[in-house]
Amino acid sequence: MAASAEDPAARRAVVGLGNPGERYRETRHNLGFRVVETLARRLGVPLTRIECNALVGENAGEPLLALPQTYMNRSGYAVRCLAERHGFEPPEMLVVYDEASLPLSRLRLRPGGSPGGHRGMESVVENLRTDRIPRLRLGCAGEQGAPGGEDLVGYVLSPFCSDEREAAGEMVERAAEACETWLREGIEAAMNQFNG
Questions:
Q1: Which residues of 112-132 are buried (b: 16+ CB within 10 A; e: fewer)?
Q2: Contact 136, 107 (CB under 8 A)
Q3: Phi and psi, residue 23, nearest 5°
Q4: Share in percent of the chain as helix, strand, coil (round to 5)
């Protein structure tokens, strides 16, 4: 997808939420990072620059891609800084993150709404002072569902089981496609295609 300078995709950003460092790389909580890394490969955008405490990349005429390095619960600080620095309005930023209340492989795009208890998205909503932020949630709950309470933290910070890895990888690829559709055609088209 090569966007021209006049293309609205060039005025957009895709932000993946997760935790920095090898320790968290393969965890359920880092699905947002994995999607943006996959999207960066597809678009040929190297994620090599640190800006606003985020690892970012952009090529001329392409959207800004970002991975906040602030840890999940403080992601909003980096997102707000990038929005202010680049002049993005909240609807021009797609936030991608894991969702323990959705089964593995399920994607959910929305134009806005409540963070639903997700601490990273809560931080983004708080810092941008609006819930009208497009988001793509990736289901990470196994067959038995995700545990509640204190056990949920350990669950999302654990890697996928061996029998879940293939499905998780396929979901990441589909989610990157959903991001591309959002960039080209907007949230409604992406919802219609990927929320099934």
A1: eeebeebbbbbbbbebbeebe
A2: yes
A3: -55, -35
A4: 45, 20, 35
Burial of 9 (0-12, 13-18, 19+ CB in 10 A): buried
70-91 pLDDT, tens digit each: 999 999 999 999 999 999 999 9
SS3 call for 162: coil
The model's pLDDT over 161-177, given as tens digits with 9 standing for 90+, comes to 899 999 999 999 999 99
- What the block records as the tokens of 147 is 């545990």
From first CA to last CA, the distance across the chain in angstroms is: 24
Catalytic residues: 29
**Rounded Cα distance, 61 and 66, in Å:** 16
Phi first, then psi, for residue 158 (nearest 5°) are -105, 155
Cβ–Cβ contacts within 10 Å for residue 196, how many? 7
Q: Rounded to two decimals, what is the model's pTM? A: 0.91
Asked if residues 168 and 162 have their Cβ atoms less than 8 Å apart, the reply is no
Distance, C-alpha 121 to centroid of its chain? 10
